[in-house]
Amino acid sequence: MAMKKAPQPDLLALVLDPIDHVSITQHVRAAEDGAVVTFDGCVRNHSQGRGTLYLDYEAYETMALAKIREIAEQLHEKFPIHLVAIVHRLGRLQIGETSVYIAVSSEHRPAAFEACRYAIDTLKRTVPIWKKEYFEDGAVWADGEMPPAPPETRAANPAS
Amino acid sequence: MARCSLAGYNSLVTLPMQTARVKVLFFGRLKEIVGRAEDSVELPDGAPIEFLFSRYGAAHPELTPFRASLVASRNQEFAAWSTPLHSGDEVAFLPPVSGG
């Protein structure tokens, strides 16, 4: 991974407590920025036609944090942005609560919009976090996305 | 390198070979099927991740149908199923991710 980027006072975290939108937004915002774009991912009250009661989130925490850091590095490489905050909450979340909050600052708005979109899309595909949805009549692990896996090599699989 | 069958643990006695102790993590539905979040197992040094999964599949047949939708990781990086394992490695079988 490239170490070339500017010092990163990016805010990248997994948390158990409710997410504080204001302080996270403030964290990325500076005098030289003309834009802050945020994404607030929140718990919907229904899923696939059923009423949701609440969600439980769990993560492979060390790997999830490493993958979130990789996303932030990619944002700095791909977009002319200033700072990034990506905070994902774990544990039990009630309807309407924020599960993930992303904030990106930049001098001009296009970069912040694009980077914020890239961040949430990549997070949903590559960060090992899972949610279980609880309904009146049961619970299911949410359908997820398969992360891109490295190609298989034949060498390590000797024919028997 | 000793030739050995990776099909099951009963056949691993023909030649002396090094073993590796690895940590295994389960998440989501897999954790519920296996009944634990974490395990520590011994296997032939260099055995691929696939071998480890088949061993759990033998003990918990309900796991096998999930194989096609899982991605493996070794030491917090996505890894091919053919990746060889060595002592101290941390392996996880990751269901499709659903964060956000």
Write the layout of secondary structure elements.
The complex is a heterodimer of chains A (160) and B (100).
Chain A: E1 11-15, H1 21-28, E2 35-42, E3 46-47, E4 50-59, H2 61-78, E5 81-89, E6 91-94, E7 98-106, H3 109-126, E8 129-135, E9 138-141
Parallel strand pairs in A: 1-5
Antiparallel strand pairs in A: 2-7, 3-4, 4-6, 4-8, 5-7, 8-9
Helix pairs in contact in A: 2-3
Chain B: E1 19-26, H1 28-34, E2 38-44, H2 49-59, E3 71-74, E4 77-79, E5 90-94
Parallel strand pairs in B: 1-5
Antiparallel strand pairs in B: 1-2, 3-4, 3-5
Number of domains of chain B: 1
Over the alpha carbons, how many angstroms does the gyration radius of chain A reach?
18 Å
Most extensive interface, residues per chain? Answer: A-B, 41 and 31 residues
**Main sheet makeup of chain B:** 5 strands, mixed
What would the keywords be for this entry?
heterodimer, A: 160 residues, alpha+beta, four-stranded mixed beta sheet, 3 helices, globular, disordered C terminus, B: 100 residues, Ubiquitin-like (UB roll), 5 strands, 18% helix
